[in-house]
Amino acid sequence: MELNDIINLNKMVARDLFLLSNEASGIDSVFSPFLVYPSLRTDKVPFRLSEQEARMLYIRKLNELGLYHSIETPTVNLYQQTGTKGLSARIDLTIFNDKTNNGSSHKALERDVNVEFKTTNCNPANIKKDMEKFSKEKVTGNWFHVLKNVDSRTLNVLFDKFVQSMSFFAFTKPIVFCFAIFDKRFSLLKVYDPSKKEPLKDFFDFKLSVKNGSVTIVNANGWEFS
């Protein structure tokens, strides 16, 4: 899959996420996909926002595009992320290339893109575990991260965690990052290309300002605002 295709796929998934209806307020748009954010027992949070909605919408797009994929894909390599024994880990979602062998009708499947989904401002340890898989599995990575909302510092704090977590590993394949901000209805996308040898702190250098609910990009640094 071309990097631009992954970027466009992420944009489509983010747009669908923003159109989802929720159980608390009902259907807000005739264009809403038939997937609903469920209510929680507490009144403090009107509905549950999780990574599962993003994964389901992503899979719908793959089916529409006719792309082979698997969920909770066992890794090729072993990982000792807990305990004393190396074990196979899991990839949230894997997209496959289907290739014809020597003109025959038989098509071989080859892992092409590994996708990890996240929500909330997660801790560095969780990011590090997934970045280790991106590093060792030797296929293009896609990080799709849903945030409920942001203020002027949220992304800087989160991006510092990526700098910290990724610094432990060497990467050979690109990683497409997408951050979908639900309440503000925008996404940020950028491709980390290890062949450019760009310092992680420079790659994640980004600044926005949020005032009275309005978002202003102060320093985009190659991040695409969509």
Structural write-up:
With 226 residues, this protein is α/β, with parallel strands linked by helices. It has one domain. Helices cover 28% and strands 34% of the residues. The chain is built from five helices and eleven strands. The strands form three sheets. The chain has a seven-stranded mixed beta sheet, with helices on both faces. Strands 1-2 form a two-stranded parallel ribbon. Strands 9-10 form a two-stranded antiparallel sheet. Helix 1 packs across helix 2 and helix 3 crosses helix 4. The longest helix is centred in the N-terminal third of the chain and has 17 residues. The two termini are 21 Å apart. The model has no long low-confidence stretch (mean pLDDT 91).
